[in-house]
Amino acid sequence: MTRHASFPKRMLPLTVMAVALLLAAVPALAAPPQYTNSLILQRADAHIYKHTDGYYYFTASVPEYDRIILRRATSIQGLASAQETVIWRKHASGEMGAHIWAPEIHFIGGKWYIYFAAGASNDIWRIRMYALESSSANPLTGSWTEKGRISTGLDSFSLDATTVEHNGQRYMLWAQSNPDSNVYIAKMSSPITLAGAAVLLTKPEYSWEIQGYRVNEGPAVIKKNGKIFVTYSASKTDDRYCLGLLTASASSDLLHPASWTKSTVPVLASNVNTSQYGPGHNSFTVSEDGQSDLLVYHARNYKTISGDPLYDPNRHTRVQKIYWNADGTPNFGIPLADGVTPFRFKSYNKPTYVIRHWEFRGKLEENVTNLADSQFRLVPGLAASGAVSLESANYPGYYLRHKNFEVWVEKSDGSTSFKNDASFYRRTGLADSGGLSFESYNYPGRYLRHSNFLLYVQAVSTATDSADATFITD
Question: Secretion signal: which residues (predicted)?
């Protein structure tokens, strides 16, 4: 078994470090986690597992489809520069000899398991699911044992195995051709053995699921708010690739098809404004403080592909925070632009309301389901490095700025006046040191605040004014 570290360490962009310094400038403020995308280049079908030993474990498909790799780090951002270890290579001949795809790492019953798909050396499209096992504490340095093929009862193209435990029962979910690529679920009697018949969860039926190919694949599971959510990927692996969503009650029979409802529209799709195309094959993890659920997925930062997209190497691993709608469902937003991930800013005195833009006017609103309208990146100030500017997540290059003291989201024209109007000094919250306030760069003493749910830059003189000008980073 050969191991090597192949990827060079990458340094965070200077803008990220600059923003980190700005965040640290207000010690009382505990900002939510922030990450830099793309997290890891040329790593598709990414899977991140947070273990009880304090490490995040990462695996993914490599462009050569010839090996299984692992990284680990104590932070998600640390995975970007972590050394990469090859823990297994494809066979020289026969089964598991080609197309090593979509590994996932799980810790079950005191042992590590990696599920993956592979073709045969003499039939590269004979894709089936397999498992590796390790009893070592550190799966990067321990030995791995091949546990053979995972039998589903149907001998056809199968891939993307994942597993979840629910109410004392372990389940496997995977994709298999019959004849379309469908997603199935079955009980497990061991980490590598299915018990009972496979149950169909979803098949490609909507127009967005049949672009290029008729595909549902790559299931991933997250449990929250008394519900079980299964994301899956649909269509060809070019810019039409996207995520769908299944939902079931946590108290329902997961093997009963009627327990599940299916979204009629994709929940994450390509975005021209952010230049992210074909987002898909995701996994879920949690932030370092355990407070935020995170979506891990891959995407390309260009649309046009020469040749078969399966062999285009530039599907990059990305990560972003999941927000939760008032009805308890996940809101994935849009695939965010390259660079630091954005925040939401909640009103201090109207805590269910957040800053958002509506027809480019800045305002407060609650239950914002068009998530990206309410997300802004804190970037170094356009007018001064000691200030900050708030860049729109869904309109990169557009910033919150004041105009006649009204706050709008507008595209930077590069002028000095725009830079000044779009720059703010970040201050400890005027009403609460656990929050933050934004003082105008070019009008000292005036702060970003809400009045009748619209945003203005105004002077602050009363306790109500201070509360209106205080926000909580989310």
Answer: 1-30
CA distance 115 to 128: 11
DSSP code of residue 144: -
Q: Which residues contact 164 (CB under 8 A, 6 or more apart)?
A: 170, 171, 173, 221, 223, 228
Residue 265 phi, psi dihedral angles, 5° rounding: -130, 155
Q: How many secondary structure helices (H) and strands (E) does the chain include?
A: 3, 35
Give the Cβ contact number of residue 454 at 10 Å. 14
45 catalytic? Reply is yes
Query: CA neighbours within 13 Å on the CB side: how many for 62?
Result: 21
Q: Is 375 in the same domain as 309?
A: no
Do residues 110 and 207 both lie within one domain?
yes
Residue of 45, 239, 312, 439 marked active site = 45
Q: How far apart are CA 29 and CA 41, in angstroms?
A: 32
Residues 250-286 pLDDT 10s: 999 999 999 999 999 999 999 999 999 999 999 999 9
* 198 and 329 part of one domain: yes
Q: Which domain holds residue 438?
A: 345-473
Question: Residue 454 sits in a domain of what CATH number?
Answer: 2.80.10.50
Looking at the domain assignment, is residue 15 inside a domain? no
Q: What is the pLDDT of residues 163-216, one digit of tens each?
A: 999 999 999 999 999 999 999 999 999 999 999 899 999 999 999 999 999 999
Q: What is the DSSP letter of 180?
A: S
Same domain, 319 and 235: yes
DSSP state of 15: H
Residue from 84, 95, 104, 217 carrying the catalytic annotation:
217
The verdict on 329 and 357 lying in the same domain is: no
Q: Are residues 284 and 213 in the same domain?
A: yes
At a CB cut-off of 8 Å and minimum separation 6, what does 414 contact?
Answer: none
